[in-house]
Specification:
alpha/beta; 10 strands; two-stranded antiparallel ribbon; eight-stranded mixed beta sheet; D-Maltodextrin-Binding Protein, domain 2; 10 helices
Length: 309
Amino acid sequence: MQNQSRRLPPLDLLVSFEAAARQLSFTRAGAERFITQSAMSRQIAALEEDLGVSLFRRRHRALELTPEGEQLQAVCSEMLAQLRAVIAQIRAPTAREELSLTTTPGLASLWLIPRLALFTKDHPAIDVRLDASLPLHELGGGGFDLAIRYGRVGQTEGELLFGEVMLPVCSPQLLRGGPALRSAADLRLHTLLQMQWERHRPAMPLEWELWLRSQGQAGLQPAATLSFSGYGETITAALAGQGVALGRRPLVDALLQSGQLVAPFADDGLASMRAFHLVLAPEAAARPAVLALAQWLRAQAALTAAASG
């Protein structure tokens, strides 16, 4: 009979533990393993029960490894790294597969591209072709397998990934060296940066109108406006200190977290009527590579929503 002390726990639990120990977060580890936070928590609890020891100390909104957890993490990290290296060497080569994804330039530059290397690292045999443009391209027959559409909630095709909250953002230099910016009324002293959705729309864009109205500043006239054809260019102008842009969270979250942008009225965000939706071409929906990218996008969206909340 096998000595119980030498019996190994299920490998799946050890892989989940390694992810949780590295991330120190059941939510992030779950997204990495494509399972929910509660499923990850149950797997760790099952491993702890199997070993008869606690591997984590559960703090308020934080995890901390116990001495036993640190010991197990060191071994698991080395073991899995060696195992993955050997598997990569002996696995039979497979044909590369190309996927095509279309989305808006703003989402591509501010949210998707900074994360995309994570997908290609885990799926080296899948090549992603990204189209970042405002026109809606046809899926399937138009040559695209997936799309992330930006449109009104309840009126846009596809599965909801995440919504957005709008709030003014600017560079720290503008906040320090420019005119006062203590309340929404002070925007009359500043240049407002905007994306011009339609060539013949009035100077003040719809998003600014809605946000200003929510702050009791309907009809406010700024010192000047600068209009751009894309949202990425609008944010670039804000980073350069050229004025105040209407930031769309979570697209600008990374810039806010890094301090490249600041939100002078942090508590005055306005939930947008628009959101980002994932759409799969029907003829591509059964392909494993397409499903892998779709699942990864869902996991990244869940992490984004959790961080923004």
